[in-house]
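debug: dumping io for the single-chain case to check the tokenizer round-trip. Nothing else runs in this session.
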Amino acid sequence: MAYFKNISAIQYEGAQSENPFAFKYYNPKEKIGNQTMEEILRYGIAYWHTFTGDGGDPFGAGTAKRPWDHLTGMDQAKARVDAAFEFFEKMNAPFFCFHDIDVAPEGSTLRESNKNLDEIVAMIKDYMKTSNTKLLWNTANMFTHPRFTHGAGTSSHADVYAYAAAKVKKGLEVGKELGAENYVFWGGREGYETLLNTDMKLELDNLAKFYHMGLDYAKEIGFDAQFLIEPKPKEPTTHQYDFDVATATSFLYQYGLQDHFKFNIEANHATLAGHTFEHELRTARESGMLGSVDANQGDLLLGWDTDEFPTDLYATTLAMYEILKNGGLGRGGLNFDAKVRRGSFEADDLFHAHVAGMDAFAVGLRVAQKMIDDQFFEKIAADRYSTFKSGIGEKIVSGKTNFKELESHALDLGEIDVKSGQLEKIKARINQYLLNV
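debug: decoded output
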């Protein structure tokens, strides 16, 4: 059956269109540089928020009205697969992604859960034979069930650790079977509430062993996906071990994992860590570890992970600048790990939200490419750091000086002509770029 029968395929109609079921800025076949928007942006639909999210929050029950709500168990799971591929086709989505329990309900044992998953994966695989939508990444949910109260790969109980490993083993097998471009390692509760009862070194050592075993098994079965870690600073635990890109990079280098992982950066996680989205993207890019992006935004007035659809054009522009300077996202993509607001409970709202998010990043792409063509930021940086291009500055950069020479240079300096950073001028110019998109 058709679940969105009143909605046709979403088309690009241009900025003057007033059709809420049309793209205003995202034109999949439009060339930006030497690639199309579709090739650069590599949009992905998040299965969990789009098809299993019910609009519930800590203070109230779900509000979402979905045409598969009357079903339960495996019948509902199968209906969601039908609905998902209808949605993918109508959105012309290149990719989708999921956690294991998003697509198939858990059983009373892991064996039963795997049986359910196998049945749904076979159904997804059959759809993918004729669909243009591919699997961007999959992962194992190791945070919802009470068994993961104290973590998964960092659990204080060996049986839970083994259970988590078995789930990831199955996830790697599923990823290979469905041709996933990436696999995300994200336990969700890999952290601690308090150091008063935590052996941090044991937990981190165990987590590193977990990752190494996962890599070994992926190699054993010939699963050559790109492996991703998604940093998050807090929530649900007080302190997550993968707090931000810098913290997680240190972990990877400490345990010899730096050549095997890249990062899946989420905008809302960046702001929870006290960073901007572009900060986390830049940090990952400059270490050669920018792999993929969870495209959303948070509400800066709220201190939790609100997972809103991205509509802040300033943020999408600066994000796309980092992505373009990275040479694109390679095997990664822009996955909308975003959910409609609790008050947006109609099925149509799923389409409106994705149109808004895709248009927002399309605008960011256009503006960022124009800035790169104009060398906007490069010229600003070249001027600001010009004193490091010659003389004593060049010696500092090249490592050809020492404290004695620097002292000699500094002792008789008069007034130093320090230039303004001109931040307001820069922001005003960015606004001009945005308004001329």
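debug: round-trip ok. DSSP finds 16 helices and 14 strands in the chain.
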